[in-house]
Design goal:
The chain has seven helices and twelve strands. By secondary structure, the protein is α+β, with helices and mostly antiparallel strands. The strands form two sheets. Strands 1-2-4-3-7-6 form a six-stranded antiparallel β-sheet, with helices on both faces.
């Protein structure tokens, strides 16, 4: 067992966990959003987010809301929806997930089966501690087209190309905007407050377009 903790989140990684045990934990968790799981062929991470983690996640979600609004895109936000495939023995609960390109396919759906349905087009991870389970192989196995990871004050954008993730400075989902600048706006929040920061971000998006 590996335990990691920061002022923003607490993580535990367990080994030799069967798929059936993972499913049982998910069922017992039900609608509890205070913990999130990631499972990769016997390894299980349990993460409990604290306020700085959740504040950062919510701000990035609001910035994504601004992006889809300014670009006039439809979106289905699925939050920390469990994304899993038993045939791969892999699954996770991201900090947030979004259907954008495939939104019409899932617009009216309440339940999804990722062995048949597409995964979210964009998934977000906020990571304040460095000892977490490497989730990139899980995203790759699930064929998630785009993954954002905010860590150490920076944003990494990875896009799936020919089965492998390529790190980019821009987001193809959002008109190839240079969204690695997004953390610069996040850092302004402590001085400006959330509302003013988000107004400045919207103005920046409009100027880029």
């Amino acid at each position: 067992m590996t335990v990691a903790a920061s002022l923003a989140e607490q993580r535990i990684i367990l080994q030799n966990i069967t798929w059936e045990m993972f499913e049982s934990l998910l069922a017992a968790k039900a609608e509890d959003t205070s913990t999130r799981y990631a499972y990769d062929r016997g390894f299980l991470e349990i993460m409990s987010p604290l306020m700085p983690h959740e504040t950062t996640k919510r701000l990035i979600e609001k910035m994504i809301d601004i992006l889809v609004d300014e670009l006039d895109l439809n979106v289905k936000s699925v939050g920390s929806m469990t994304c899993k495939r038993e045939d791969l023995e892999q699954g996770l609960e991201p900090d947030s997930g979004f259907y954008i390109q495939n939104e019409p396919l899932v617009r009216s759906r309440d339940q999804l089966d990722l062995s048949q349905d597409p995964p979210p087009d964009l998934m977000l991870e906020v990571d304040f501690s460095s000892s977490s389970l490497n989730k990139l192989p899980i995203y790759q196995a699930l064929a998630v087209p785009e993954v954002w990871r905010y860590a150490a004050g920076g944003l990494t954008i990875r896009v799936l190309q020919h089965g492998e993730y390529v790190e980019l400075k821009t987001s193809p989902t959002f008109a190839n905007l240079p969204l690695t600048k997004l953390p610069d706006f996040l850092q302004q929040t402590s001085q400006l407050g959330e509302t003013q920061m988000l107004k400045q971000f919207r103005a920046w998006v409009r100027a880029q377009l």
